[in-house]
Please model this.
Amino acid sequence: MDPTVLLKGALPPIAAALLLVSICGRRGLPLAAGIGLYLAYGLLKDWPAAPWSLWHQPNGTAWLVWGTVGLAAVSTADHLGLFPGRLAPMTTAAAGAGALWLMLTKMAQRWSGSEAALHIGVGGVSVALTALAMRGALARSPRSTIPAVMTTLLLSLDAGLVTLGKSALLGQLCGAVAAAIGAAVGTTIWRRGFTLAAADGAWIGGTHALFLLAGVHLGYLAWAPACCALAAPFTWWLLQPAEAGRSVWWTLRTAPAPFALMAVALWLAMPADDPYAY
Amino acid sequence: MKTLILLPTVLVAALVPMTLSGEHFAADAAKLATNDAVDTKPWFVDTGHSICVFACKHADAAWFYGTFDRVEGALKLDPADLASSSVSLTIPIDSLDSNNKDRDGHLMSPDFFNAKENPEMTFNSTKIVADGNNLTVTGDLSMAGVTRSMTIPVEWTGDGEFRGRRRGYLAQFSVNRSDFDMNYGVAKKTLGDEVRLTISLELIQAK
Model:
């Protein structure tokens, strides 16, 4: 692939994450990822139309970007303690489901009522539950850089999956979000160790599910690998120890299942020949 | 006396064919008039004999060709009233064939046509100018969710009869795919920005 194109996708989120995490600490990461994704889309494709324009002329990929930015905004508000009580997880779930609904608005115009209900209903619940599962998983994760490294790897594998689903653009955009977390981990060199908070689970889990479903609906990713990958955060949430304890033990107990699922998903999506060799 | 009898006979004999031939001319004129009336009837694209061929430069080296095997649409042409004339064409993106299934899938992905969201390429005329049988058609070309106004020269290729009146047109023009937000490979010239389109239409007139 053209290195210039790779840089257009990777540099904005890396720069935004290095800057905002250095200034604002870990609270700056969701916003950095949102800004980085917006800039990457603008440089790779075109500046996404404003939401009020998209409402009249929907575009799934542009809504995907805005949906991820919206989830990042919810996470930032959560970081800042703006949600009292249980409002944070409820807002997270609503934002995730809403983002999927907006992403599929244009396609839903050609679906029957039952198809729309199935894809938007089940898909929305999947995004909401994934965001909540990741939120729950990060709440019980050790205070170390390992969960951040794991989520970077998870989203990087998502990027590979959607690229195998015939869309290099979606792959690069998902990779941009992964790059933001990776860059935030990199700030450990000159700051104290970077850790993810429960609030980050909302946008990381939501982004994971949104991009996989975008790969299926907008691209040509098959359902089997997508479902396999969608399940990965749930295994993280279910199988990690109740207490974070020592990082090494936590990693050995938690990491194999989600990454085994991602490996199976990649294996299922992998074509016999190089899909871009033409 | 014989002359008196023969003269009217000869005159009648001479006049009958003339009259008949006059009727024939009148019938021809009527037929022409009918044909003129027929001309305002709409024409529909014969999908079995129409095609859209595209060409795009690969690796800045050679032109590779592909087709959209299905072209649908209609032409309403009234030479006396071009303002009320119109062309509308629809090309389903899933009729794309670039002679490589992997490439077809990629061309239909969000990197290019985003076919799941925008399953058709459409052209709807806004102005038609006639130059003899040839046309210059201005209209809105929509693909990948983007609409751009274009002026396309359209060459008349002939009229014929085969299970109805038929008419052929050929349009050859270029578009820059980056104008339609299809930027994949443009920067490195993996795939050229310019796409040459050739649309050959066989139209059949409504009865």
Q: What stands out?
A: The helical segments of chain B are 2-39, 101-108.
